[in-house]
């Protein structure tokens, strides 16, 4: 039966469909008709299925002017929800093939127009588009104006940090992590202490106050310092503008949506400023080698290309986890393939190294430098009667859904310890069973289970031998970062209660099969030696 597509202000009578779902952030309505079952699981499956198409579109759109400012062509799953929109379309296509008639409620004007063109979809009146587009354009102009003012102030305030860098330095690029300090960087834990001549450059996302607070070590500069205040005026117009041909593809409405949303903020201007500043820094400072926490974002691709032209070695630190959903870390979306990858990527362990190999990165470019950010092997204390450790996400909506599901269990025998994300505080309101904790997972005395949605806590819990539940939010995809072969039990708001009743302690996992201890000799060789042929893989 066909899918009936409607916006929330134009719903049909309830007898005209057998099930329903709300997509793309549309607020669900109350109806006696059943909702589509396992919506989160089905959406995640669809997200898995659209991967290759997003990679293909990334290569296609990435070659057009201004695409270097955008996150969508890089397949950045945390920076762009384009892949989730593709997944919604794939899911609606599958619903149209089912025997049951389905109502799909969508208030997103671009996605609605895309869905209305799919086979088996019977669409009503589309949501208004022009008002939404105008609001985004005005908001984008305001955001770019604020960005321009902010970077000018940062450039002027940090000029004095230029002297920290000299020609021939080995340099790491980092961000303003709250736990970093002069002479120590949280993203490269222990590396600045192990290599006392190593210099640090703060990325443009690090505010001027934070950069200046780190500068007293005499080794830290801020890339803002190399930016031209005159160039800042161009940021007012710096946004991704897809070419006419980009909009004629089957997914043209979704491309237009991605461009409108990215243009509704200051990310394009910030990317332009980072590209400008890092290019001037490379020419002026002429480092011998530069390393950064690598995720294959637009500025990183430009860094690899520009540094290679100047004969500067580039080292990517595979500092975070990858898993099946970090599509941006594959070369498949890079217009020039591996030419915009660093010379080498120091991996944090064998499992994620294999992840990159499976995605097409040559083995010889993937030595293992060890996990600088993850703690070593540690067995976590299991207590079947203990509380459940809940790690909130960096995504506010995901955290809100997790807490809403937990509050429905407030009368149960379970107790929950809620740990906020260190960089994204939530503002938890405690109740009888829900209590805040600042104690990290590794230091908890005894837990019955761990519940998480995104981040590395799930990996740590599995490696520590605890029952681990991965929360799937409704209407979105929580990126799975576990390596191939490692899985946490997926739950949603409807299945969480039953999962907590049937917890099973997992079989012990080998930490060494996933991660590796830091190897500062490999780091020293990568940063301080020109002999790239002798890396240990």
Any idea of the CATH topology of the largest domain? Rossmann fold
Per CATH, the architecture of the largest domain is 3-Layer(aba) Sandwich
Q: How large, in whole angstroms, is the Cα Rg?
A: 24 Å
Tell me the domain tally. 3
Shape: globular
Structural class: alpha/beta
- Helicity, in percent? 25-40%
Estimate the strand proportion: 5-15%
Largest sheet: 6 strands, parallel
CATH superfamily of the largest domain: Glycogen Phosphorylase B
* End-to-end gap: 54 Å
The level 1 CATH classification of the largest domain is Alpha Beta
In which order are the strands of the major sheet placed? 7-6-5-8-9-10
Number of strands: 16
In DSSP terms, counting alpha (H) and pi (I) runs of 4 or more, how many helices? 15
What is the typical, i.e. mean, pLDDT?
Answer: 91
Segments where pLDDT lies below 50 for 5+ residues?
Answer: 532-537
What does this entry look like structurally?
This protein is 32% helix and 12% strand. With 537 residues, the chain is an alpha/beta fold. It folds into three domains: 3-128, no CATH class; 134-374 and 518-534, 3-Layer(aba) Sandwich (Rossmann fold), CATH 3.40.50.2000; 388-513. The strands form three sheets. A six-stranded parallel sheet has the order 7-6-5-8-9-10, with helices on both faces. A six-stranded parallel sheet has the order 13-12-11-14-15-16, with helices on both faces. Helix 13 links the parallel strand 14 (449-452) and strand 15 (468-471). Helix 9 (267-285) runs parallel beside helix 10.
């Amino acid at each position: 039966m066909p899918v009936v597509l409607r916006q929330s202000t134009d719903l049909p009578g309830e007898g005209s469909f057998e099930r329903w779902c709300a997509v793309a952030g549309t607020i669900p309505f109350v109806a006696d008709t059943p909702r589509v079952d396992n919506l989160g699981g089905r959406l995640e499956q669809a997200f898995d299925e659209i991967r290759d198409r997003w990679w293909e579109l990334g290569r296609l759109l990435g070659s057009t002017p201004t695409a270097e400012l955008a996150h969508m062509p890089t397949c950045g799953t945390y920076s762009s929800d384009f892949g989730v929109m593709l997944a919604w379309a794939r899911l609606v296509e599958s619903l149209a093939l089912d025997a049951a008639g389905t109502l799909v409620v969508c208030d997103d004007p671009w996605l609605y127009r895309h869905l209305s063109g799919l086979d088996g979809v019977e669409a009503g009146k589309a949501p208004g588009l022009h008002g939404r587009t105008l609001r985004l354009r005005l908001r984008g102009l305001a955001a770019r104006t604020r960005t321009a003012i902010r970077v000018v102030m940062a450039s002027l305030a940090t000029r004095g940090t230029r002297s920290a860098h000299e020609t021939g330095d080995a340099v790491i690029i980092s961000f303003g992590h709250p736990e970093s300090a002069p002479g120590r960087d949280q993203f490269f834990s222990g590396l600045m202490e192990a290599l006392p001549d190593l210099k640090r450059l703060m990325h443009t996302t690090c505010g001027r106050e934070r950069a200046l607070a780190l500068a007293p070590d005499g080794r830290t500069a801020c890339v803002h310092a190399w930016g031209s205040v005159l160039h800042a005026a161009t940021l007012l117009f710096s946004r991704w503008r897809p070419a006419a041909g980009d909009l004629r593809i089957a997914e043209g409405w979704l491309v237009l949506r991605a461009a409108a949303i990215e243009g509704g903020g200051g990310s394009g201007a910030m990317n332009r400023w980072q590209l400008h500043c890092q290019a001037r820094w490379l020419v002026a400072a002429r480092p011998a080698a530069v390393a950064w926490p690598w995720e294959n974002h637009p500025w990183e691709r430009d860094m690899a290309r520009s540094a290679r032209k100047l004969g500067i070695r580039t080292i990517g630190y595979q500092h975070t986890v990858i898993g099946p959903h970090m599509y941006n870390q594959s070369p498949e979306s890079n217009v020039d393939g591996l030419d915009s990858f660093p010379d080498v990527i120091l991996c944090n362990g064998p499992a994620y190294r294999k992840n990159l190999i499976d995605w097409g990165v040559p083995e010889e470019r993937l030595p293992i430098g060890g996990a600088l950010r993850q703690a070593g092997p540690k067995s976590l204390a299991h207590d079947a009667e203990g509380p459940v450790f809940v790690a909130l996400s960096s995504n506010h909506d995901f955290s809100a859904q997790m807490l809403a599901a937990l509050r429905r269990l407030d009368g149960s025998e379970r107790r929950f310890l809620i740990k906020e994300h260190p960089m994204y505080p939530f503002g938890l309101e405690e109740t009888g069973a829900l209590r805040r904790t600042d104690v990290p997972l590794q230091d908890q005395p005894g837990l019955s289970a761990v519940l998480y949605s995104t981040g590395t806590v799930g990996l740590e819990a599995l490696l520590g031998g605890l029952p681990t539940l991965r929360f799937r939010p409704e209407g979105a995809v929580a990126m799975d970062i576990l390596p191939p072969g490692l899985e946490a039990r997926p739950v949603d708001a409807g299945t969480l209660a039953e999962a907590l009743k049937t917890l099973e302690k997992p079989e012990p996992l080998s930490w060494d099969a996933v991660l590796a201890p830091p190897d500062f000799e490999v780091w020293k060789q990568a940063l301080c030696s020109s002999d790239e042929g002798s890396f240990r893989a």
